[in-house]
From TrEMBL:
This is DUF4352 domain-containing protein. The chain crosses the membrane at residues 9-28. It comes from Tumebacillus flagellatus. Keywords: Membrane, Signal, Transmembrane, Transmembrane helix. Residues 46-153 form the DUF4352 domain.
Length: 173
């Protein structure tokens, strides 16, 4: 039995579909392998209590301003200062450090913005900055972290545990 040109065309189309499906499956498998280990970060809001490493954390307030005035001087924002107040309880029985570098802003383009050291120091009375000392075991501290945010819509603040094993997001809307 001789095949017609139409049958040959159908067979070639079937072969192309099978090859294309195989390539697509392989590419998806490669992407899944690349994404393995990446996790989606849960996002919280103001006034939600969240466990981050050995600390229970709650963002209590957000204020936007163009100027931070300290005890002896002031600083002007290049964009807008986001003053984030929080409470943090050490759940362990031993003193633990909390550093300013654990707090970052996630901007709409995916880049991270570090906290402003000077503004964070000026935002609280002299010597009272949370990141200048260890948090004693079972102690709850109140702190303020300040970001100088460029004129873009703000998406989230990220908080990472001191050992880097856990990161959570907070919406600052």
């Amino acid at each position: 039995m001789k095949r017609s040109k139409g049958t040959n065309l159908i067979l070639w189309l079937i072969v192309l579909v099978v090859v294309f499906s195989g390539v697509t499956w392989w590419l998806m498998d490669q992407q899944l392998a690349q994404n393995k280990g990446q996790k989606t970060l849960k996002t919280y809001t103001l006034h939600e209590n969240v466990i981050v490493g050995p600390f229970a954390v709650e963002l209590t307030d957000l204020k936007k301003t163009n100027r931070i005035v300290g005890d002896n001087n002031a600083t002007e924002a290049r964009g807008t200062y986001y003053k984030v107040n929080f409470s943090m309880r050490n759940l362990q029985g031993t003193p633990l450090p909390v550093t300013l570098s654990q707090f970052k802003l996630l901007l709409p383009d995916g880049s991270l913005l570090a906290a402003d050291n000077t503004a964070s120091l000026l935002a609280v009375p002299t010597g009272k900055a949370f990141f200048l000392r260890n948090v004693e075991g079972k102690e709850t501290i109140n702190g303020t972290v300040v970001f100088d945010v460029p004129n873009v819509p703000l998406v989230r603040m990220q908080l990472t545990s001191g050992d880097g094993s856990q990161t959570v997001n907070f919406d600052l809307k």
